[in-house]
Recover the amino acids of this structure.
């Protein structure tokens, strides 16, 4: 490196690093962003079949069906306007129950159903909430 | 009475901080004219008193929690008289107000430390640094006083407190935030040094040497904090993962990445007087990342889909401070950096060149994490709701990270200023050979995917390369900081190996079984012996008794639980983990189906513990380096005198 | 070129700052939308939970703006919310309620302990009415205008500093 221009070269390299990071991020963003849908958002509209998305809503009362293998479940997510049947195989989070909020991550199927590979209960607190947000909105029921 | 005393201490500290800024101005001006030694002495004393007052305020808050003074709102909200003592104490900082008080306490104490121990820096620069540190503190004192006073009383006082989130009742978590804060705020000292050096046009090796121990210390705490936080998430969340790319985690990762870059560039500046502007810039960026991290966590604007409670007042306050300090520092940088002369130059193939590469790669990773963390805000401005998950970060950041591992292997083998490609290749021959053998073994014979195999190969290469600097050296005369570098780089190799091994070879099983049935996971057969109720001090639980057997080894008993906390009502999954020499068996109990079967989820995770062992090795390396540097500084200071 | 590079960091920072400030001023709407805002209250007919108060018939929720509070005696934030509801009642607001999966005895005790701001309490033993309203937890409060249309949904407990905004919205809905 020529001594005279070294500083400029370094500054340009730094700029290049930032641009490189942006380019990398953008290319990865194109297909990795998990988009968020509510059942009403996809009612009567073309389904985002090729994307990994999040589906949010409430677990419809009485809709949870557990399969014979003990680990597969089906349930219906509703937002009061539309419903989407969801299939999931795995352990559901602690706060997952009928009538409570849920966010399912996965893909829509051509028949309008949703296959989830991950379930987040809407109110589970994975980390320190901004201010014990868990206290502000209960999703428990008297039965438990 | 205690609460009022605490508030008084805070206000007094604010007053002293104001005085400190004015004295700093006077001392810096005086020093430039060769006078003002008395002002400087006063400035040092004021900085120490300010630190002690902040410490007193924080101590008084802890006293309130220990005494369960339910007339103080913060105690009511976050504590309970029945809680174990350690969680009462931890409750003091396990909430917004307390954690901000801890933040400013660390800030003021660090300022006091600079005032007490910094002997070799030019007086004017030191004065400007202490002034900058006090100016930052004033902002946070104001924040406490106007938007998050921790000492507010309630009347009438309730009979008892409202508990604390049970997820947070965990020894790991009790000490996790303070560790991270020590790191975050330690970077404020680096920032103040940079501002002081810019103001006094004194960007050079002396400033870098003064700044280095603070960067190192902050970096050690960040490393420990991130490592401990990762392990906490791993065993507490019961999902078998160890890093979730959650905004809160990213908020701690970003300052670490910036501090790591700063750590390496400050060495170039201190040893070779190169990379002046770059180092100053990084010091500003590193503290920006700390403040942005605090902002993201405290304002709640980004906390994943499943949290609400955005607090615009508090967020706005921190954001205003962020704009003021970081914007101000960057404007100062723009105005002054033109007057800073170019430092020493170097060849492309040299230690400096490798450190520049290290810095660039770290910057790219930092940029990717930054964009990924903040992108939801961009989308939101465009009216789209989205969240960025692990696949994004893995795709965009991991390849750069692997390139960085390769660069880390080569860097320490290069000479300062100028070296030859040929010599480098000669030295790298053995490490690369070991790496290739490891890669082939894992990829072809172990049947792993190419990405984790590549990572394992690179880890092997780095492990060998990292000890080469000790080769053919008199080990007793080798300076401590060389050992520090070796241990830290070895730690990176160990940690990467753990991540890759987990990625390549983990086995997961999920099944619903009834008592006396079993599932097989990896080398283990896990039998469900019994599901029974269990009770703890403030929870009740369903506990499974699992027996895991491998070959003829003695069976291992595991007791995963599903816990139900009464106050506030919450349930959590307590994973049961057996740590073996060659990995961990991780088990979780899920729901029952009402017909006698229980969901059992089990993972066999070979060598996963290396991830955290590596993390602590990295921190240990930092500690060795810090001790070595401080000792050498002290010796040099004595020989100066 | 060089001058440009020197000021690039500040420009970049300004950009990020503007973005974050924007996010703070216009917080992400990350609750699941009830999609009921702007629509009439769905047809609900709930039996009274207590003998002393009428139940809820959505056809009767007209004539003046009111609050419809979704609560339960087993919900801790509802206790925290109670003083605010009493204040709203003192300010002349009519507050109706839906008790979710609750029992008369428990609600009676809850009201005796925390005050009783309610004009009507409907019994929702299965949570069906809650789902029809698009509510996902307790407490939640719906603001209803004089035509029986839902104008807002407040999720979580009503805090003391929410009261003026709620009163203003009800006033505007007259």
């Amino acid at each position: 490196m020529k001594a005279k221009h070294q500083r400029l070269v370094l500054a340009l390299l730094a700029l290049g690093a930032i641009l490189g990071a942006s380019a990398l991020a953008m290319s990865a963003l194109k297909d990795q962003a998990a988009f968020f849908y509510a059942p009403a958002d996809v009612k009567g509209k073309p389904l985002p079949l090729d994307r990994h998305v999040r589906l949010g809503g409430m677990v419809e009362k009485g809709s949870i069906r557990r399969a014979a293998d003990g680990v597969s479940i089906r349930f219906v997510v509703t937002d009061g306007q539309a419903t989407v049947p969801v299939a999931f195989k795995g352990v559901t989070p602690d706060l997952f129950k009928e009538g409570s909020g849920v966010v399912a991550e996965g893909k829509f199927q051509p028949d309008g159903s949703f296959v989830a590979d991950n379930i987040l209960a809407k109110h589970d607190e994975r980390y320190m909430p901004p201010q014990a947000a868990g206290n502000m909105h209960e999703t428990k029921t008297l039965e438990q | 009475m205690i609460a009022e005393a605490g508030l008084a201490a805070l206000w007094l500290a604010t007053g002293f901080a104001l005085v400190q800024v004015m004295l700093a101005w006077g001392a810096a001006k005086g020093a430039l004219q060769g006078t003002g030694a008395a002002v400087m002495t006063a400035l040092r004393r004021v900085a120490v008193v300010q630190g002690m007052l902040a410490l007193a305020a924080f101590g008084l808050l802890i006293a309130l929690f220990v005494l369960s003074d339910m007339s103080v709102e913060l105690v009511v909200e976050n504590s309970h008289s029945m809680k174990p003592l350690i969680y009462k104490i931890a409750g003091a900082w396990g909430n917004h107000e307390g954690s901000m008080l801890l933040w400013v306490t660390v800030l003021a104490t660090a300022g006091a430390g600079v005032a007490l121990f910094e002997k070799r820096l030019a007086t004017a620069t030191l004065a400007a640094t202490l002034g900058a540190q006090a100016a930052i503190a004033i902002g946070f004192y104001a924040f406490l006083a106007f938007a998050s006073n921790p000492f507010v009383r309630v009347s009438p006082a309730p009979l008892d407190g409202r508990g604390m989130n049970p997820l947070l009742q965990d020894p790991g978590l009790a000490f996790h935030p303070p560790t991270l804060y020590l790191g975050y705020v330690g970077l404020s000292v680096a920032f103040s040094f940079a501002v002081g050096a810019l103001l006094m046009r004194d960007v050079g090796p002396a400033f870098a040497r003064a700044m280095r121990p603070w960067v190192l210390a902050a970096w050690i705490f960040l490393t420990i904090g991130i490592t401990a936080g990762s392990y906490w998430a791993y065993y507490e969340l019961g999902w078998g993962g160890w890093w979730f790319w959650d905004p809160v985690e990213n908020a701690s990762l970003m300052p670490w990445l910036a501090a790591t870059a700063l750590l390496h560039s400050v060495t170039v500046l201190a040893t070779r007087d190169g990379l002046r502007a770059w180092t100053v810039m990084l010091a500003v960026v590193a503290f920006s990342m700390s403040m942005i991290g605090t902002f993201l966590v405290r304002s709640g604007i980004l906390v994943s889909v499943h949290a609400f409670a955005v607090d615009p007042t508090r967020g706005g306050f921190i954001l205003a401070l962020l704009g003021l300090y970081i914007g101000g520092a960057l404007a100062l940088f723009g105005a002054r950096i033109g007057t800073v002369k170019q430092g020493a130059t170097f060849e492309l193939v040299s230690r400096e060149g490798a450190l520049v590469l290290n810095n660039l790669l770290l910057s790219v990773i930092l940029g990717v994490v930054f964009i990924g963390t903040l992108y939801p805000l961009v989308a939101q401005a465009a009216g789209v709701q989205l969240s960025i998950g692990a696949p994004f970060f893995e795709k965009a950041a991991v390849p750069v990270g692997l390139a960085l591992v390769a660069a880390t292997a080569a860097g320490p083998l290069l000479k300062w200023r100028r070296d030859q490609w040929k010599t480098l290749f000669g030295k790298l021959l053995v490490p690369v050979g070991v790496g290739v053998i490891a890669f082939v073994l894992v990829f072809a014979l172990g049947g792993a995917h190419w990405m984790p195999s590549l990572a394992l190969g690179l880890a092997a290469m780095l492990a060998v390369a990292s000890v080469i600097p000790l080769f053919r050296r008199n080990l007793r005369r080798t300076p401590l900081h060389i050992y520090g570098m070796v241990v830290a780089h070895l730690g990176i190799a160990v940690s990467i190996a753990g991540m890759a091994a987990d990625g390549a070879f983990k086995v997961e099983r999920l099944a619903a079984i009834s008592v006396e049935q079993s599932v097989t996971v990896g080398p283990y057969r896990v039998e469900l012996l019994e599901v029974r109720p269990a009770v703890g001090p403030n929870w009740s639980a369903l506990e499974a008794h699992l027996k895991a057997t491998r070959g003829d080894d003695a069976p291992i008993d595991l007791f995963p639980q599903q816990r139900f906390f009464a106050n506030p009502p919450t349930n959590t999954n307590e994973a049961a983990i057996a740590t073996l020499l060659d990995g961990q068996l991780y088990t979780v109990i899920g729901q029952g189906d009402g017909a006698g079967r229980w969901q059992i989820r089990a993972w066999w995770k070979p060598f996963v513990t290396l991830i955290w062992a590596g993390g602590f090795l990295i921190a240990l390396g930092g500690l060795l380096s810090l001790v070595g540097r401080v000792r050498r500084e002290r010796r040099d200071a004595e020989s100066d005198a | 070129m060089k001058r440009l590079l020197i000021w690039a960091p500040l420009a970049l920072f300004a950009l990020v700052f503007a973005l974050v400030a924007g996010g703070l001023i216009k917080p992400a709407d990350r609750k699941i939308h009830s999609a009921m805002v702007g629509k009439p209250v769905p047809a609900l007919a709930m039996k009274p939970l207590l003998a002393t108060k009428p139940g809820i018939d959505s056809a009767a929720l007209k004539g003046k703006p009111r609050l419809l509070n979704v609560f339960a005696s087993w919900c801790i934030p509802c206790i925290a919310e109670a003083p605010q509801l009493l204040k709203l009642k003192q300010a002349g607001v009519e507050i109706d309620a839906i008790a979710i999966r609750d029992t008369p005895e428990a609600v009676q005790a809850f009201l005796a302990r925390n005050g009783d701001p309610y004009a009507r309490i409907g019994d929702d033993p299965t949570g069906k009415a809650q789902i029809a309203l698009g509510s996902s937890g307790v407490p939640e409060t719906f603001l209803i205008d004089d035509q029986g249309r839902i104008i807002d949904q407040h999720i979580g407990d009503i805090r003391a500093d929410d009261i003026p905004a709620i009163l203003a919205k009800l006033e505007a809905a007259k």
Observations:
- The helical segments of chain C are 2-25, 76-90, 104-114, 128-132, 163-172.
- The domain at 35-172 of chain C is CATH 3.40.30.10 (Glutaredoxin).
- The CA atoms of residues 50 and 104 of chain C lie 6 Å apart.
